[in-house]
Amino acid sequence: MPPLPILLLGFAVVLGAIIVLRLHAFLALVAAAILVALLAAGEPAAKVAVVADGFGRTAGQLGVIVALAAIIGGAMSGSGASDRIVRGFVNLLGERRGAQALGATAFVLSLPVFFDTIFFLLAPLARSMYRTTGRDYLKYLLAVSAGAVATHALVPPHPGPLAMASALGVDLGTMVLAGIVVALPSAAVGLVFAGWASRRMTVEAQPLAPGVPDVPAPAVLPGLVPSLTPVLLPVLLISSNTIVATLRTAVPSGAATWNVLTPLTSTLGNPNVALFLAATAALLLYWRGQRPSRAELARLVESSLLGAGAIVLIVGAGGSFGAALQLADVGSLVRHFIGAGAQGTGVALLLLAFAVSVVLRTAQGSATVAMITTAGMIAAMIKGVSLPFHPVYIATAIAGGSLVGSWMNDAGFWVFSRVGGVSEAETLKSWTPLSAVVGTTAMVTTLLLALLLPLR
């Protein structure tokens, strides 16, 4: 069967299984991977083995990182480090700039912590600020969302960016740096939109859903520097490896210095090592502040890992799907999008990646699934193709698309509504356009960077 029908059929299976049959994304992606592999040319048994190999390779690369990131999030929540960072930004910017303080806090905290955890942590503080000021409740909630969704979609160790970096062959340090560069203007524009929407919509905090806390539990909070350590440590270590490797090539006159630094940065900057050190720091912070028993510490780690397990399965299944698409030679489809080798601008390819991600996000709801599936498809298309820019820009374009089209089939929609105490109609008028604004800004930023700073 030709590559295009195989690609479209695999795409349809993913959407149909998730939307119509309500299957878990893991099953949907594995089913699509097996079907695509069987339709490709070759011996059936060997083709099915490619599916398993793709799963194992992807899960092996990313599984430890996702698990450690989940532990960091749980430990920071339990230790009060997250609350301490919020108060640090409020003290720095002042209560009159409460929205900016919440947005900056969400941006920093969501570097290693998942979106729903960030929103659970910061929504009570938004309510507290609203009770103090009597206004701008929607602005506070949207500020939290803008900062959190930008890094969640663009910066490792979140599973979507991790999977995209793996599928597209992007160095993780490069993905971190480029993700932050693209996420900053995206979050900033989202914050501007939050102020605009707040002036046009009067939203009052509604009673919270059962089980949602109204204010954080009082506790003795750790210092600001120890609280920031689990967040900034992995970013600095992973980025240092990329920076030293780049300088080693760009500045050969400093070869003696780079030869000394490279073994150190390549070890400490390994994502598994960097995240392990950050998780250790987060757990030590939790132990020092709360003095938990061994059983309590074990429960915190176990509860964190339970959520990480499902994410690893989805990420691995995405790797299977990507491997199957490569087997079907869908790479031949991309030639006309980027012209002859590096002579084309590649803008059409970035727009294609963005559009496919938008369709997947709108159709099935999960930004992570949209990123993983789209990255697998595009990676198969560009295999062996000379790009006019660094493939990291394909990843950031996909990430931007994964933020567009969030509505009632998205878990984040309901987290915003239920935890924030906002009606469904108000959520559609605020959360949905906010995520689209953040995602579109990420795409525009990506296009500018790809044209002006291709990093080839």
Q: Would you kindly provide a written description of the structure presented here, covering whatever features stand out?
A:
By secondary structure, the protein is mainly α. It has one domain. 77% of the residues lie in helices and 0% in strands. The protein is built from 19 helices and no strands. Helix 6 packs parallel to helix 18 and helix 15 packs antiparallel against helix 16.
Reconstruct the topology from this structure.
Elements: H1 3-20, H2 25-39, H3 44-79, H4 81-93, H5 98-109, H6 115-133, H7 137-154, H8 159-168, H9 172-200, H10 224-250, H11 255-268, H12 271-290, H13 294-327, H14 335-338, H15 347-364, H16 367-382, H17 392-401, H18 411-420, H19 424-452
Give a nutshell description of this structure.
The protein is mainly α and 456 residues long. It has helices at 3-20, 25-39, 44-79, 81-93, 98-109, 115-133, 137-154, 159-168, 172-200, 224-250, 255-268, 271-290, 294-327, 335-338, 347-364, 367-382, 392-401, 411-420, 424-452. The protein has one domain.
Radius of gyration: 22 Å
Structural class: mainly alpha
The first-to-last residue Cα distance is 35 Å
Large-scale geometry: globular
* Count of distinct structural domains: 1
Arithmetic mean pLDDT: 84
Poorly predicted runs are 209-218, 338-343
**What is the string of SSEs from the N terminus onward?**
HHHHHHHHHHHHHHHHHHH
List keywords for this structure.
single chain, 456 residues, mainly alpha, 19 helices
